[in-house]
Records
---
Amino acid sequence: MIELVGEESVLEGGITTHYLRYTWKKKLILLGLVVMTAVLALYAISAGSAELSPMQVLLTLLGQTEGNSQIIIWSIRLPRVLAAMVAGIGLAVAGAVMQTILRNPLASPSTLGIAQGAAFGAALAIIGWGAGSTPSTGGGALLINSPYIVTISAFVAAMLTTMIILFLAQYKGVSPESMVLAGVALGSLFSAATMLLQYFTNDVNVAAVVFWTFGDIGRASWGELGIMSFVVLGSLLFFLFNRWNYNALDNGAETAKGLGVNVEKTRQWGMFFASLITATVVSFLGIIAFIGLVAPHLVKRLIGGDNRFLIPASGVMGALLLLAADTLSRRIIAPVVLPVGAVTSFLGAPLFLYLLVRGSKLR
Amino acid sequence: MILAVNGIEFRYSSRTILENVGFTVQRGEFLSILGNNGAGKSTLLKTLNKILLPKKGSVLLEGQEVSKLSRLAIALKMAYVSQRYESNRQTVFDAVLLGRKPYIKWEATASDLALVHGILAKTGLEKFALRYLDELSGGELQKVVIARALAQEPEVLLLDEPTSNLDLRNQMEVLKTIQTAAKEKAIAVIAVMHGLNLALRFSDKFVLLQDTKVFVAGGPEVMTAENITQAYGVPVSVERVQNQIVVIPS
């Protein structure tokens, strides 16, 4: 160890303390976000056509009640609230990691063409193979014959898009910075293909495809929630293990290499897991825009770009935003449930514009 | 001898950047790589720690072939400061702490923090510790990236134009800090330098590159008016002023 710690540090021993206080502040903000999310979750479980008090919810979750409230909570509201949180964590964390490894603030699950790829896969299954659409809270009329085929087809198409992106980066020398451009191109290609499919089919199928693309949390039951949680939490763990690598990458590829980071591997695996999350969430729930873009940007404004805090805080922020959007979509013109994808875009776009206009004045 | 470079050759497709380049560095030595723009200085520096893989030749770090070492193994011995660096939304403390990256398993330890603190004090960056990088001047930023490299506790320090953004006073300060660290910790410093006079003042060894090849390499004795004139293609005279060798374009 270099013995540079001399009299100076004794004289002004405050710097490390200041730094630790500064990181504590970030941890406090993170904790605050967690508390806000928990409170909102409690509200989201209690609010609905059958009003329950937060106390009843707590007691039910602890297994202290029986009867109706137990059924409502365990089989309807809890999976929905958990799905919103897991999907929110997944999309936001995927966005944060994509922004870091592609070194582009515009990178997100919906700007890399992955969501559009999933939509094409779903359209192909619904129209091409007559699989129909997913049953949901709002669309009783648009039933499906085989929801799993739609989901699997959407997932395969989304992962295919990912593979194309990784292939372009790996073998065709497309720079990470221009990957978003490639993603935009791929996205519009898939949108065009979806459009063509829709043009040549009947109106019921078109409606089913359009309906599928509206992101809807209500599609998730315990089974889907389990798969989503596994993918999201597994990837999150992977991202957290790599948080120092991502911090190094933030300082440029050459500097990262000098710090001992295997830049190519870090990028490939990071993109793979971020895309896996996106593909899983989108194929189960449909397209939910803006969470992956807005949540990391909000967090960067709050606590800066240090991935040690950015990744977990983006996740919590994503959970908070998506849960808020979903609760709003359930409550705003109840009993009608709006598609949450429309709500996130509706709220996300102005929020994003506000962040841009606000500039970096805020710390 | 900590680093031995032997017959390095590097090409970008058909364009040859480096041809048969070789030199050696001892611990505690300060070696300057000099030459005109496009002579291959930065490329040479990047081949030393495997950022670029040379087509031919070898780089031996304590007798081990660098091309066969993992990035992490290299980073534990060699630090690299790029000519271009990013300013982003991280604090100076965090940026320097990143120098501990090769040593950090899960989280930075108290001794990592103490080390960073010491280096910030040594490089005069203490008062900026909690500033964001994108709020710093070019010179301050340059000091940060050099401080990060020192935090890496390298045995070989590679610097690509470490003083290009610094004013006269900071040039002297930063090079003095590097020189002191090199002597105290027996770090070998290899720096691409633009300013001939700064190089002459701080270096023990020189590699003069001219058009992909080593024109001449060695101690101060090779820095003659004749050699410099030929390597740079500009007539110069070399004088001794106040016990310092200086190069004056004539």
---
Amino acid sequence: MNTAGVLFGSIVVVVLIFLLELPRFRRAEKKEKTVFLVLLALGMALAVVLIYFPDVPGPTQLVHYIFEPLARVFKLE
Amino acid sequence: MEKGKISALQLAMMMYPAIIATAILLVPAITAHHAKQDMWLSPIWAAFTGAITVWIAIRLHEYYPKQTAIEYSAQIAGKWFGNIIGFVFLFFYLHASGIIVREYGEFIIGNFFIRTPLLFIMGSMILVCAFAVRGGVEVVARLSEVAVPVVIVVIALFVIMLIPDMEIKNMFPIFEHGILPSLKGAIIPQSWFSECFLIAFLLPYVANQQDGKKYALFSVVAICLTLVMVNFTVLFVLGNITARFVYPVMSAVRYISIADFLEHLEAFVMAIWVAGAFLKIAVFYYVLVLSTAQWLRLTDYRLIVFPIGFLILLFGNWAAPNVMELSHFLGTSTPFYLNTVQTVIPLLLLLGAKWRHRGKKA
């Protein structure tokens, strides 16, 4: 998949989410507004990281690193 | 925050697809790999974890009847440490939702929509689930009530239609290498059963509280029976090559041929799996959104549904580079991961709650 297209798609998704929730966003309390924007920003940042470095180690690798010794004890390999 | 109420039967109907939907995708092959012809026994061992987890969740619920797991972990472990436990739950459910969406996407891509981009399949499912989650717990519960009977009937129909292809001798010799292989085969399905801990987030919204325990255990039994039936079917139809398939149930259903007329019923398998996966993702997604809102002490969770959906999509993409690595991860470290978060941590919470309530009559 081409990088620029996916990047553009992610921006479109984030903007669409923002526009769709705009009426509710206006009515929301300050704390909810902050959380909403922070979550969207987190999503966008993670999308950019994943687009440019698709092989960056993620939660799966972390979990695998922690629990793999147990899997070896039970010979699940 | 959540004003909706569900019935205990609806709770059971939400739990059923939340475990079945992916437990009959990749899991039978992994079970068959370890247990060989004793694979039909593994779900019965596995159900013990389900019963223990349900018992832990119910006991915790009795101590804190109006609170979900996120709220009472702060009460039990103190504000600071409770928040860390809450974060572990949040992260776990985000990661787990991502993995489930990915499993669903890989299944659809691998069998039916070979040329469709994975992101599109996963994204459209998350979008549909997001609308259900925004509707609240009642909407998810009613969707389950509509879809689950259909799923059960279709699974039963497949088993009946496969009877002509079944070879009972595939299950012999029983216990060729003792009881251990079937126990080892149970390690993976039992971790799926630990997902019963989801009821800890839903019990506060059950209207008929006194029936909650009964129906929660009832769903564990129903899940166990379904898995035993599915494993029997797969074993009888495919025999000792079961472990070589990625999706054994799918491959078994391809054998259906009645009077050279009723063939290629895979499309129905896809239909019920899309329904099952939809409910599973919706339940996980709902729990994740509700927990996030409670963890951050928001007054309403609806605003954060779509941003979290976007995160789930990214985590689904991030979960594994391909389906083989995903299967390897699910077959090795996942069981310990699921059990640690959904059985061991709640057990520690229960011990903490007992200690806090010592000397008082519960």
